[in-house]
């Protein structure tokens, strides 16, 4: 069972760059996308309901052309929740908590800490969002439920997770308070699935769109799949698909024993 997460940086734009061809070739069971930037009715029919996918589900921000998340599932979803219970957070369309049998898949587009002037002014909102979601999932974590949290976390956790850590210590995404919040998740028991299998450097999932940056692999690892202790025994592999183009992010994935649903 393969589950994939991808910040598509605008799903209509990604569609023009071959998103559906990728969706067919990937052979995933569940795909979560972030930064959809469109309401469901604004998406082309072939994207909103692609052949071979039993269920699609989209959540849009109140602000047009901003944020948004979506799920594609081959065998359907038993239930999807989309709110954290905080008006300012829920208005941004950042969350889907989907149940697939005994597995819960959280598809999330975590806020960026940059304000309109790239001044780190949104970091408090970002951290509040992290904490609210952590609290929402804490009981399930403690009770041994099988949970995956995937998406664009907008944080590089450790120095190994970005190409130029010394140059970005004051940049949102690598500020100490952001990294500490991700540390808190790991200490609580969440497992960074990619780092469970791969300890080496040079693995990134986002690159600036400035000319030549991606070719030189000057990137950040901002996209994760975290597994609860209850889910981790079923995780067999984790990967970053850096060869996939169409966005400034690339997809990340986990392969699981299909028994995780039962």
From TrEMBL:
Entry cofactors: Mg(2+); Mn(2+)
Site feature: Interaction with DNA substrate: 249
InterPro entries in UniProt: AP_endonuc_1 (IPR004808), AP_endonuclease_F1_CS (IPR020848), Endo/exonu/phosph_ase_sf (IPR036691), Endo/exonuclease/phosphatase (IPR005135)
Domain of life from the UniProt record: Bacteria
Site positions per UniProt: Important for catalytic activity: 223
GO MF, any single term: phosphoric diester hydrolase activity
Annotated positions for site Transition state stabilizer: 154
Keyword hit for NADP: no
Every Endonuclease/exonuclease/phosphatase domain range: 4-249
UniProt keywords, alphabetically: Hydrolase, Magnesium, Manganese, Metal-binding
PANTHER family in the record: AP ENDONUCLEASE, DNA-(APURINIC OR APYRIMIDINIC SITE) ENDONUCLEASE
Family: Belongs to the DNA repair enzymes AP/ExoA family.
NCBIfam families in alphabetical order: exoDNase_III (TIGR00195), xth (TIGR00633)
Protein name, per record: Exodeoxyribonuclease III
Species of origin: Archangium gephyra
């Amino acid at each position: 069972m393969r589950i994939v997460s991808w910040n598509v940086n605008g799903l209509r734009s990604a569609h023009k760059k071959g998103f559906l061809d990728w969706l067919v070739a990937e052979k995933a069971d569940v795909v979560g996308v972030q930064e959809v930037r469109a309401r469901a009715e604004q998406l082309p029919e072939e994207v909103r309901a692609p052949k071979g996918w039993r269920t699609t589900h989209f959540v849009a921000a109140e602000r047009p052309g901003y944020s948004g998340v979506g799920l594609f599932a081959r065998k359907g979803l038993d239930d999807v929740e989309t709110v954290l219970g905080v008006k300012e957070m829920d208005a941004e369309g950042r969350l889907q908590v989907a149940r697939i049998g005994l597995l819960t898949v959280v598809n999330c587009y975590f806020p960026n800490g940059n304000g309109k002037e790239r001044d780190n002014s949104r970091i408090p909102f970002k951290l509040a969002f992290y904490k609210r979601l952590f609290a929402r999932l804490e009981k399930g974590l403690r009770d041994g439920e099988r949970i995956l949290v995937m998406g664009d976390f907008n944080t590089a956790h450790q120095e190994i997770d970005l190409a130029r850590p010394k140059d970005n210590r004051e940049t949102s995404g690598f500020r100490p308070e952001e990294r500490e919040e991700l540390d808190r998740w790991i200490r609580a028991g969440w497992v960074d699935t990619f780092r469970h299998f791969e300890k080496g450097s040079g693995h990134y999932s986002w690159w600036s769109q400035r000319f030549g940056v991606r070719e030189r692999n000057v990137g950040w690892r901002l996209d994760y799949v975290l597994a609860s202790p209850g889910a981790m025994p079923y995780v067999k592999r984790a990967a970053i698909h850096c060869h996939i183009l169409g966005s400034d992010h690339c997809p990340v994935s986990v392969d699981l024993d299909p028994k995780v649903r039962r």
